[in-house]
């Protein structure tokens, strides 16, 4: 039973015109396959005055167990494609792998190691190598990107 | 070498034409020499001996050749001889050479030996070769056959090979070879054949020629030789095969001794020394080495190189030409900064035990349960959930208290002044400033004296200094003055105290003031004083001079301008004469800018200045003669014991003793703890010294101290509230300073003893003059800090606690960059630190920091409230911020997203900027600007304007509060799931009940309305929604009066067509009963429904009890096209259902035209209306019932006669009430889901137990009767939950109303109900769109003058209680309001239900009572829930004592706790302002008249003044009688006065809130629609003012048509 929290991170030049910058999907309880379908629409409208800080999509996959408790199953992030059109993205996720004790308790009582500041790690991948992580599935996204007036400022997409 | 080559060349030229033998010789020497040259090249300093030998040999060879020069000829003899001789010579020569070589070899060093050897070898091999060529015929044959060139090459190569192979041969071998050579020599001549020899010679000749050429070439291209050498290598094999073992010679390994090697190396190697190079050599002469670092410039860190290596390098460079280029100014080798990064790019090996970067820390978290709104500080499962605030309340000092005696007041003042004095003294600003002034003056003097004005720096700095001096002086003067004033006041107060003590003959306070004189050297001080004054005068003069100059400058410019202008004027005037046309316009503008001639500035007078300075000095400085006074305050005075005091004072002291104080600590406005109660000591200090540890769970929003004072045993009064700031996270328990927070209260206390009281004026003077009023005030000393945990961990909650899924990042920046963001508080500190640490400003590492400091220090007091995170961003921006923000489209999008009211439902933002008009924003901007400006234009009444703006604000805040809550969706909002068809289920089951449905009759006799599918509001658009109004029938429509028919009879032309129509059938069938015809004429009503200005009407029916049964469809348009529940709830439109009478009038005015055709005019007359707000329809989904038509009390020309003869069936019901009724069914198609009320908990001040009980009670009730609403708690205006019974409390109605009818309680009640009903009605669901019911208390209600049914009901109920009636509040369901509140009273064992919003009352068994269901009853101390089977008021029993029928909230198990009411003790009514009412009346009248004219744009609107005045006189009468029983007289009166007019009109009665509803009401009557040409109008407005500014508005509208 998975759900996904998502958030869009941008640089200072970007301005959110409408839509939500972050959100959370429903909880899907996959019964047939190993795939959870969320079909969560993301509708955001940005205006920018520079290319820096191109929006990034941060994802956190959470799991809701039978008791209604939630735990993190994966972190991941991907850039919003820079070319207009419909893109199918696959965002790989990972999660911190705790000590054996943590893993043990995770197995029996749920919960699990979480990042203290997920956005910091997710934002800069440089330091992440310090973490011991394990892979945690991929999130598939279909993003339709529409750009406007980029050509006017000499950006070719 | 070159010389030897030359000689060679010469020799060769000579030899060119010599005989082959010589040529051969030459060749040999040449080759040998060539070899030698090759060898000698590398050895620059080779030993000269071999060369010399060679040379000698060559010369030897050449010398004998030259004299024996013979012309070349092919004679055999000669050749023989020649050959022989050659050989001979050769032999000799060889011998000689050998011997020579031997000698030389023996003599020589080992080093040149190889050279020598080689030469020997060469010789030998050459000789041998010749031999070989002679001996080996076969080889010669071969040679002959082979090409010459190859042959020569071959030979050459062989030669060389030999050389090589025999390289290591020793000398003896050479001798052997020689022997061998000589041995084979002897037999040869005999064996040799001449021919062969000849041929051989020929060959040799050719060879020689060839050789010559070759040598020539060889000379030129030496490289070829090298190639040859290389070529030969390949032929090693056969050479080896050819060479015998004899060539191999053992030879010892030769070695050079190390010293020798060194010696040799020394000659061609250069070893730089390791000694340091003196600096003078490294830098250009005449220059001192500069050390940039010492000069403060940034130099990067040099990479580490060992000193010796550096020295070596330097020495090496120095030897080079231009070596000095390599050295920098400091005499060191230029070097780039160390490229090695401090931190390794490649991170260290990761270890598990190693500390992980903080942002990477993982925390094991238990699986959390999600809560919808997490207002708690931390999640429940969080480990770190313990935070502690320490609040230390040490004491309380009153600076004023009601029990203060006069002396205390003065003492407090003195103490305050003294504190101030001490503080000032500690700062000692005067001294500081004086010092600064001196320093500055010195500086100026120095620059002038020392540097002189020549240097630009000094020149620049002097004015700066001067400005500084001026400022400092000004400051110092101000400070000095303040000091002096303070001192003076201190002394004055002390004197006052002393006189007071003398006067009252006792002392209360231990204060004593000593003034200590400080002895000073008189003369010195005087001198200083004078000097100071002189300096000041000097400076001032300078200043004035400067100013003067500046002014002069200005003046000059101005004068210039003025002159030029003057000239222009003159020229203009000349022009003016020329063209007269322009004259006027020119003059206009000229007059506007008539200029004044500038006045030259005054020169400052030095005497005046001196005067000024001296005066000032006198004012603010000690005079030179005066001693310095230092006050000292001592608390050592004795207080007069109580026994000695007068009685009043004794009383005061006793009173003080009785008093004590304590402090409550409120955290987030909840009391968490309180201090102990401590008595107030005689000096009005209270010491608590308590520390409270608050372990908090919620985020601290407010910290409050409430200071209470208790008097004796009983009363506790709240003195004041003090808000304490929540400490910053850096303040921990150890280091928190104790702060004194001042408080004061506006409490008014008067005491009967010596205490001065507070808020009461008193005076110190005996005559009572000079009064002063003091308020209770004081200081609380306390400190608040965050506690420190066991391990020294501060128990501080994390600063940013965000509830949202992923908060935005600010954190991924480095530490320095985040300084600015973290709070900006320690900016100054940072700058200071940077200054102390002497950070290198050029160091790129510090760049960010330095920039920051620059910003902070340059702006001095200005601390930027931002920090640029992306410094480079600006350079890469496409557009500037302004342009970005200017974009209208973006703004529109943002506003829409932000759900700003105007743009909330704006659909389809245009794609291009140009398509967005500026107008869109105008309204919004205007609103933003005028938020606080009260616009009284629309309200005509200042008070109402204020209220309206207040309401607007409340509304906004509430809306903002609930906007977020609105985004909570339910499953049904998002998922549209069809119910699964199942067996036996209700609804759309296939097999279940629907099977039986097949058997149902196709057209059932009593069709039931099917439940329609509900549609969620989100996917709707304009035109989808329709309002269906089914008008069934009406009862008791007023009928036209017979007077009318009487009236129209004389004037035939304008007879009602109706009459005609009625008459014609009667003419046809006069046999019918005249009754029938009579009934027909009565009225022809039709119904017009107007909604959102769309109008629909039914057909015309006839008679007073018409039956239409028609369905009208009206389109519904939501505001801004938004169909969300939110906006639908806020639709303010009302459905007007108007009943009209259709009157047909003959349009033809002339009698004689009648015959041609029938031309009639349809005229309609308004009879009455029903108004239903849309929200009611929306919330109710359908409205089905019979409504009372709101018929004006007077309908001219109509009467409500009852014709009993027609419909008897309704008599029994109808006779109970009067008025007309209409049966309606209204619904919306498709059905909309009404919005759910917001399910949110509000904070409350109710007892927790009570709330729990209420919840339980509600749950119980609802489980039994799910459809019945049970109300126990409501939300008040501030958004808090309040128990409902608190609203009910007896209140006094306005005395005026009671006085009006002193004897009859019945009429008084009616009057009160009417009064309540006059308060404008404003449903909560409209104002606080779809949020919830907000209940305001009665005084709020009366202040706001607008409210919901609940407020009306509460107020009415309270009034009834106040009038001594038994009254309850009914929570129930009524039409058309929906869930509402009514009032129930018990009068003479009969229950009466009052409708508070109309003022009507009904008996319990009245069928036309709009109240349909009764859910619960509320009194001031209990709630009863209806437990009976039925809830219709007709069918239930209102006896609340029966527990079976009514379930009470407070019972024996839960007794009534005595909740005190939220209502005020008493309502204070303002007397209404009659004048304002009259004014308002006039204005409304004017507005309405304008409006009516506006609505009739194509016709002339005439006003009949006479009629208007009549109507105006009549209106107050109506008000007095509340519209009853006046009709007939009025009618008669009007008739009398306006005899020849046909009048149709009516008064409208409304409560007044705004003008708009009035206009709307007038419009809805459609008076203006009459378009008879000669119509006249009359309009009168009367406003009756009730107390508290409640206005009852009467509008009388009439249209008059003159009868002819």
Automatic annotation (TrEMBL), chain A:
Keywords, A to Z, come to: Cell projection, Cilium biogenesis/degradation, Cytoplasm, Cytoskeleton
Which Pfam families does this entry report, sorted A to Z? B9-C2
One Gene Ontology BP term is: cilium assembly
The question of whether Oxidoreductase is a record keyword is answered with no
What are the subcellular locations of this protein? Cytoplasm, Cytoskeleton, Cilium basal body
> Which cellular component appears as one GO term in the record?
MKS complex
* InterPro entries according to UniProt: C2_B9-type_dom (IPR010796)
Principal location listed in the UniProt entry: cytoplasm
Q: Of which family is this protein a member?
A: Belongs to the B9D family.
Function field? Component of the tectonic-like complex, a complex localized at the transition zone of primary cilia and acting as a barrier that prevents diffusion of transmembrane proteins between the cilia and plasma membranes.
Q: Which PANTHER family match?
A: B9 DOMAIN-CONTAINING (PTHR12968), B9 DOMAIN-CONTAINING PROTEIN 2 (PTHR12968:SF2)
Q: What is this protein called?
A: B9 domain-containing protein 2
Q: What is the lineage of its organism?
A: Eukaryota, Metazoa, Chordata, Craniata, Vertebrata
From TrEMBL, chain B:
Compositionally biased, Acidic residues: which spans? Answer: 203-227
Sorted alphabetically, the Gene Ontology BP terms of this entry are: non-motile cilium assembly; protein localization to ciliary transition zone
**Which stretches are transmembrane?**
none
- The record places domain C2 at 1026-1186
Q: Which Gene3D superfamilies match?
A: C2 domain (2.60.40.150)
Q: Which GO terms describe its cellular component?
A: ciliary transition zone
Q: What is this protein called?
A: Coiled-coil and C2 domain containing 2A
